[in-house]
Structure formats: C-alpha cells, structure tokens
Amino acid sequence: QQQVKQSPQSLIVQKGGISIINCAYENTAFDYFPWYQQFPGKGPALLIAIRPDVSEKKEGRFTISFNKSAKQFSLHIMDSQPGDSATYFCAATSNDYKLSFGAGTTVTVRA
Amino acid sequence: GAGVSQSPRYKVAKRGQDVALRCDPISGHVSLFWYQQALGQGPEFLTYFQNEAQLDKSGLPSDRFSAERTGGSVSTLTIQRTQREDSAVYLCASSPWTGESSPLHFGNGTRLTVT
C-alpha cells in the first residue's frame, strides 16, 4: 500500500506562478524526506530533502515546508519556469536505504 | 561515463521468456538499488546491495525475480518466466555511501514490455 500519499496528480501553472505539491504520511518512524524530479524518459533526480527537525528548507526557487504534527510536507516551486515542467515525487524513509515514493505530480508550466 | 548506465534501454519479451537487465553504477559507489516503476506511478523498491552483499530483497514481487552484483560493481536483475504484470520501467540507482542522506543517482531505466 502507498505509505506516502501525494496530491494533486497533476497541475498547470502559468510561467512565474507558484506550484504547490502536498504529501502526507502515517509512519512516524520516517525521518528523511527527499523530493525527486523526473523528466520523460529519464530517471528521477534528487531535488531537495528535509529532516523533521526542520520546518522549512529552501534551495533556489524550491522550498520544502514540513509539519511534523500533521505528518505532512509540501514542495513549493516559486517563479515556475517552462523548464520546471516534469513529474515530481515526494519520498520518505525510516532506515538507511528503502525509499517509499508518492505516486507523483505532473507539473506543466505554460509560457 | 559519469552516470548510472542501464541496458537495454527497451526490452520486449514474450510471456514466459527470461530477461536479464544490466546496471553499471557510478564507479566507487557502495550502495546499489533496483526499483520498479509502473506507468504513472512512483518507483517501488525491489532490492538493495551494499558492495556485493544483497542486504534486502524484500521488494522482489516473486521468486521469479532475482538480482546479483558481481565484484561490487555491475548488477543484473533477472526475471524468469515473464508475465504481463511484469511490464514496467526498471530503475537502477547507486549512491556513494550508506545512510539515508546518501544521494541516489538513478539511471534512465529499462522499459520492459511483456506481450
């Protein structure tokens, strides 16, 4: 069963707008939460990651917000660009290696 | 080659055939993973190697699936007597050290279609 629930399934945003993707989990043992970006025909690539002792992490135009009590975390893409059009996956792990991925969100940025 | 290389890129197999999928990880990477990605879904963990040792194979769907990693480098995922439900993209990833914060580097996958 899906250990990490991701929404929405897809979204369309205008160039310069903000894309927001949400994820929720139940397993309180999860302690590392990476986000991956995947282009068609390519493997996923690590974008940004966070641990639950931090409520927010920003890298360039990408920001993760983390709410430990709600067991939710989200990815914000600021000033979205056409090159950001891709599928984004949230993930979580409670051990050294086994990642549980969400089902993915396809982001389309319209010029 | 700076990245993880997988071959073949595409594989079409008739139901019942055996297939072998190859992964060349980044040189020196300790950890190697196989994931299965169904169409429109996120990757699902299959198995994990630390150097040559297969430490976790809990994600392999059935005993028709097996994997090995020779010399702590190249890995092969073998599927025997393929079934239509095996159709998916098989992703290999490697990482430089052990530990959850070790970044995964994925290959571009092998798309398997079972007819």
Write a compact overview of the structure shown.
The complex is a heterodimer of chains A (111) and B (115). By secondary structure, chain A is mainly β. Chain A contains no helices and eleven strands.
Features:
heterodimer, A: 111 residues, mainly beta, six-stranded mixed sheet, five-stranded antiparallel sheet, 0% helix, 53% strand, globular, B: 115 residues, seven-stranded mixed sheet, four-stranded antiparallel sheet, 11 strands
Q: Which percent range fits the helix content of chain A?
A: under 10%
Total DSSP E strands of chain B: 11
Low-confidence stretches of chain B: none
H/E element order of chain A: EEEEEEEEEEE
What proportion strand of chain B? over 45%
Instruction: Estimate the strand proportion of chain A.
Output: over 45%
Main sheet overview of chain B: 7 strands, mixed
Order of helices and strands of chain B: EEEEEEEEEEE
* Head-to-tail CA distance between termini of chain B: 33 Å
Number of helices of chain A: 0
Q: Measured on Cα atoms, how large is the radius of gyration of chain A?
A: 13 Å
Distance between the first and last residues' Cα of chain A: 37 Å
In helices, the fraction of residues of chain B equals under 10%
Query: What Rg of chain B, in angstroms, do the CA atoms define?
Result: 13 Å
Shape of chain B: globular
Q: How many extended strands of chain A?
A: 11
Q: Indicate the multimeric state.
A: heterodimer
Mean pLDDT of chain A: 95
Biggest sheet descriptor of chain A:
6 strands, mixed
Give an account of the 3D structure.
The complex is a heterodimer of chains A (111) and B (115). Chain A is mostly beta strands. Chain A is built from no helices and eleven strands. In chain A, the strands form two sheets. In chain A, strands 2, 4, 5, 9, 10 and 11 form a six-stranded mixed sheet that branches. A five-stranded antiparallel sheet of chain A has the order 1-3-8-7-6, with no helix packed on it. In chain A, strand 6 and strand 7 form a beta hairpin. Chain A is globular. Chain A starts with a strand and ends with a strand. In chain A, 32% of the residues are buried. The mean pLDDT of chain A is 95. With 115 residues, chain B is an all-beta fold. Chain B has no helices and eleven strands. In chain B, strands 2, 4, 5, 6, 9, 10 and 11 form a seven-stranded mixed sheet that branches. A four-stranded antiparallel sheet of chain B has the order 1-3-8-7, with no helix packed on it. In chain B, strand 5 (44-50) and strand 6 form a beta hairpin. Chain B is globular. The mean pLDDT of chain B is 95.
